[in-house]
Amino acid sequence: MSYTNRPIRNRKFTFALLLAAYSLFIFPLTVSAQTLADRLGYPAGTKLIIVHADDLGETHAVNAAAIRTLEGGSVNSASLMVPCPWFPEMADYAKSHPEADFGLHLTVTSERVYYRWGPVAPVDKVPSLVDKNGYFHHDWESNQHINPREVEIELRAQIERALAMGVRPTHLDSHQYRLIINGKEIFDAMLRVAHDYKLPVFVTRDWFADHPYLEQSLGANDIVIDHTVTIGPEVPAEKWADFYLSALKNLKPGVTEFVIHPGFDDEELRAATRERPTWGAAWRQRDFDFFTSNEFRETLLRENIKLITWRELAKMEPRK
Asked: pTM of the predicted model, to two decimals?
């Protein structure tokens, strides 16, 4: 019997089943459309930013500049590099300032030529992560085999050292994005560690197109930032403020993380970063200067941009 020849009662029942199935299908999509801003209680269209200082613990000049910005209120979040020589200074600061929004800048490379650091885990436990001298590799070459299991061992060692030294991290992110951009196995190792320690990972939707495995690996309750802004080597020094002002004026609704690198252009930082200017002393001084400027603060007010932290994101109720 064709559908059109069935009794009316049967057709009504069939239609009801189809409607119920459609409702069950579409309801999860409606829920998943709930934004971070919604979950934080902000009205639609609100522009939220995290101003996040990277690389704390790398040098004293970086620490001192970051502390100044944090205490001045122009930067409201940061992450610490556990393997670096000046990490103990920041660990002490974090311990005495438990309200600060400090994450861990998980580190598996040592990119500078003369200023190096190595793993927290024993070298013999993470041989693929180190060079012949026991330092992290400067970079991960395309033909180089990095063992994801060893990455996971090192990440856990870094978190355990931070906890032992009194740091209570609010989130995790990745130095040089190595744990993000080097394939699904590496990212999944980071994500397993994050889930075990119940810490959110800095991931943004901006990265999904180039690295689709990120979205595939993330679960329904993993936090995903809407956008990120970071300055690049293509921006000349004289256009530094223009870059950031344009980014703020053209900010999209939702949550955006500004990843910045404050530091003082002093003898220590110049020596540590002397082999190249990118992310060097002068670069970091320019970031410090802009994000402590009245122009930055006035732009936030004028554009009605709200500051939030990873601590707030981590405290959100799970997605309903």
From this structure: 0.88
